[in-house]
# Entry
Amino acid sequence: MTRSCLLLLVHCILFIFTSSTTTAIATITIPLSPSITKHPSSDPYEILNTLAISSISRAHHLKTKTITKTHKNNSSSASSLLVKTPLSSHSYGDYTVSLSFGTPPQTIPFIFDTGSSLVWFPCTSRYLCSGCFFTIVDPTEIPTFIPKLSSTSKLIDCKNPKCSWITGPEVDFHCQNTQTCPPYIIRYGSGSTAGILLSEALHFPHKTVPDFLVGCSIASNRQPAGIAGFGRSSESLPAQMGLKKFSYCLLSRRFDDTPVSSNLILDTGSGTGDTKTQGVSYTPFHKNPAGSNAAFGEYYYVSLRKITVGNKHVKIPYKYLVPGSDGNGGTIVDSGSTITFLERPIFEAVTQEFIKQMGNYSRAADVEELTGLKPCFNISGQKSMSVPELTLQFKGGAKMVLPHQNYFEFIFDKDVICLMVITDNGVGPLLSVGPAIILGNFQQQNFYVEFDLANKRFGFAKQKCK
Ligand SMILES: *[C@@H]1O[C@H](CO)[C@@H](O)[C@H](O)[C@H]1NC(C)=O
Ligand SMILES: *[C@@H]1O[C@H](CO)[C@@H](O)[C@H](O)[C@H]1NC(C)=O
Ligand SMILES: *[C@@H]1O[C@H](CO)[C@@H](O)[C@H](O)[C@H]1NC(C)=O
Ligand SMILES: *[C@@H]1O[C@H](CO)[C@@H](O)[C@H](O)[C@H]1NC(C)=O
# Structure
């Protein structure tokens, strides 16, 4: 402890001495890899269908997320249970990072998620994951953190201000029968996790973050891995570490389940300049106008202004592009969603434009049925193929011209391509609450992506990640 403090002091002194001549940038680089769990099926239609369904259920969850707490009344003895509902994560279609917690360090894989904020790991030797059959990983072999083996594990006390990050302002109410911060329950689109909050040391190769707030989950449903929340609330990893920015380049999904990875870079630098990274286009981040306490406060909103298919500007009603005073509408960037979600009217406009411009290819209705994606085209026998360009234009002029592979999935040996965007599944009323557009990780492949927190802006540049 004293030793690392001393080291830190040395770093500070070094920084003071060097900062006048060079801009010292302190960065931490950690590998980022696609999926830790294999899809149990090798049928390409089934895999795509799983991706589509999980992306829809996640979108559903992100959109309807509300923070539900136990009712505040006097007789409720179950008052020490908190219910918070961030978003869903799925074992397939996500990217993972490994983080080391505890003394001595225990290294555990986490799903990298910019759509939620708490960092939690499967915890104790008794960790129970029900409904984890859908992964190839044997649920009893899920890597877990063992607090008993760490000398720095501490329970979070009710008096610790960090407790209220999870309980909200009603901390006194939730703490009336307990001294330690009450357990959390997080519900997901499909699944949930429950546990207690710990203070732990978080280790990186050249830096240790003491007293990091982390969730120790004892039981989960359909959650084979922990989640590293990179959202905008106080408990997120970037907020706790005071990061200036973080950036990554998502490897193409064709590297799924192979041992390659790209990097997630955490910038802990103390420079406050607003230097832009060369070659990177930026657009500002916005807060949801419904306020930072609202459920949508932890999302990274960007201002999408225009979608073009080929040369055609697709008409999108303004109410979807900009969040209203009710908090609905707008675009968020989410690393934990796979396929980009478009509110149904936007989805219809975009897909109709693709169908119109690709009239020379025959539709593969059977494949659309099997995968849940639309439109799919049969390109069998085509000598060459041309697909319209898909471009997202943001406030400030930043243009994201997507490579074909980022919106058309080619199903090998079937000669079929499918457009990789989704909407709600069409049953029931329009789900027009929450973000209207969720920019998923499929669309971010082979882009350098920067979350410049200090300057509140989102940056991107096309880049081969491998
Ligand atoms: C607590 O409050 C909720 C909501 O007001 C109510 O439904 C419930 O019956 C109350 N419980 C008790 C035990 O009073
Ligand atoms: C709880 O009880 C106190 C006193 O017994 C009362 O003043 C208060 O209004 C009650 N709160 C709720 C939410 O019922
Ligand atoms: C469709 O086919 C027609 C006639 O073969 C051709 O002139 C046209 O360029 C094609 N359009 C596209 C988008 O490939
Ligand atoms: C695509 O079209 C070819 C030729 O018309 C046909 O043989 C094949 O079965 C079709 N593939 C699918 C997946 O529909």
About this structure: Residues 360, 386 surround 2-acetamido-2-deoxy-beta-D-glucopyranose (ligand 3) (CB under 6 Å). The two ends are 38 Å apart (CA to CA). Residues 71 and 421 are 38 Å apart (CA to CA). Residues 44-64 form the longest helix (21 residues).
